[in-house]
């Protein structure tokens, strides 16, 4: 905000390895809402992050493919949708950690644990309480592909 007030709505930021151009303020919002879809790509920024993490991210998609995945995800992860599944998600964590003992020392594969939690929570949230009326096999197939796209596959 300080940079926007001092430098105007367009300015450059120097970070290690690159220079970023920043658009700020109401002018930027107007420009992005009208023309941004044709001018910007998040792929440039997120491809390196995805490569480093060894995963695929929706943020590195552009255009129609990005909109399609967002539309699918928003059906299930909007605030009002997620609220109804908080209890289920908490139960998944409690069930997964049920055998852990206080003071117990063991090595946790954090990546595998987070992937398993994410997959189980999203899967249960999707399946529980979702009426099948109006949903097609394609909807379910796209959701499963989306989950696999994020590499949220439970380790065996």
UniProtKB/TrEMBL annotation:
InterPro entries: Cyt_P450_sf (IPR036396). Coiled coil: none annotated. GO terms for molecular function: heme binding; iron ion binding; monooxygenase activity; oxidoreductase activity, acting on paired donors, with incorporation or reduction of molecular oxygen. SUPFAM superfamilies: Cytochrome P450 (SSF48264). It comes from the Bacteria. This is Cytochrome P450. The lineage of its organism: Bacteria, Bacillati, Cyanobacteriota, Cyanophyceae, Nostocales.
